[in-house]
TrEMBL record:
It holds the Pfam family Glycos_transf_2. This is Glycosyltransferase. It is an enzyme of class 2 (transferase). Transmembrane segments: none annotated. Belongs to the glycosyltransferase 2 family. The keyword Transferase applies. Residues 7-130 form the Glycosyltransferase 2-like domain. Gene3D superfamilies: Spore Coat Polysaccharide Biosynthesis Protein SpsA, Chain A.
Length: 298
């Protein structure tokens, strides 16, 4: 069942144990995909462990922590038409990469396919799955699944050329809701993003994470995305909604402060979305307000 259409890209930072488990699972896939790992300057011996235990993996060592841009670095090396992202604590289920490639082959207007996320070790669905499955975004009848307004980098297969043309993940956003800006830029280019319920990725959340920093970046990046791409009135509405709903603590204050400090950059880079893409975002706003899965990352 070897499938040469898709390359798997993983970024990692100081999660040696989790990454080795993920690479073990990827090595067992019947598709036998090429795997590229960008080690974001780990100090726990991650890179050496990968080279020792998985010499078949292409290992990139940029020498500094690039955040989500580590994926961009890896995609430069990809020669397959599709690229599958997963985190260092998640892995694709057997057959799902082939299923995603088949969907993209059959539907040339679709740029990304996001899979169902199963939380390990108990095998339960991630709460975000219901939101993906019940997405309110309208799409043409030929779509192979619900249309989405964004995607989850840890569970998505994309067209390699489209990813490159759109510029990949923006370096300023780092990590935390970094997908949203790229997603709307892809939509503005005329692409559709979809969810596929019959594809699966497993996620065994690492305990090695800074939840406070991720929330801070998530709030900040949501504000940046909002003012980079949305018209003034919806941007004001979204900003006020965030101000009312985020926890009133130091983390939120720092996020808003960082977002405001970047105003000159926002004004230089601001490019309002086409009306049809903005309409999709407005339809998503009630879901965003009610979401318990992605409340602080868009």
């Amino acid at each position: 069942m070897t499938d040469l259409r898709t390359t798997v890209v993983v970024i990692t930072h100081n999660r040696r144990r989790e990454l080795l488990r993920t690479l073990d699972r990827l090595a067992e896939l019947p598709e036998r995909p090429e795997v590229i790992v960008t080690d974001n300057a780990s100090t726990d011996g991650t890179a050496d462990a990968v080279a020792r235990h998985h010499p078949e993996v292409r290992l990139l060592r940029p020498g500094r922590n690039l955040g989500a841009v580590g994926r961009n670095l890896a995609v430069r090396e990809v020669t397959t038409p599709y690229v599958a992202f997963c985190d260092d604590d998640s892995w694709w289920a057997p057959g799902s990469l082939t299923g995603a490639a088949d969907l993209l082959d059959r539907h040339p207007g679709v740029v990304s396919v996001t899979a169902r996320i199963v939380v390990e070790p108990h095998g339960t669905e991630d709460p975000i799955v219901r939101e993906l499955r019940e997405s309110p975004v309208p799409g043409p009848p030929w779509l192979p699944g619900p249309a989405l307004g964004s995607f989850l980098a840890a569970a998505t297969v994309l067209r390699t050329d489209a990813f490159r043309k759109a510029g990949g993940f923006h370096p300023k956003l780092w990590l935390g809701g970094e997908e949203e800006l790229l997603a709307v830029d892809l939509a503005a280019d005329g692409w559709w993003l979809v969810y596929a319920d019959d594809l699966t990725i497993h996620h065994h959340a690492s305990e090695a994470r800074d939840a406070t920093l991720r929330r801070r970046h998530g709030i900040r990046n949501t504000l940046w995305f909002t003012w980079l791409r949305r018209p003034v009135v919806p941007a004001l509405r979204r900003t006020l909604d965030l101000a009312r709903t985020v926890p009133r603590d130091t983390t939120s204050l720092l996020a808003f402060t960082e977002a405001a400090a970047a105003l000159p950059w926002i004004l230089r880079e601001r490019r309002v979305l086409p009306p049809e893409v903005e309409t999709r975002l407005r339809l998503l706003e009630p879901t965003q307000r009610a979401s318990k899965a992605r409340r602080y990352t868009g």
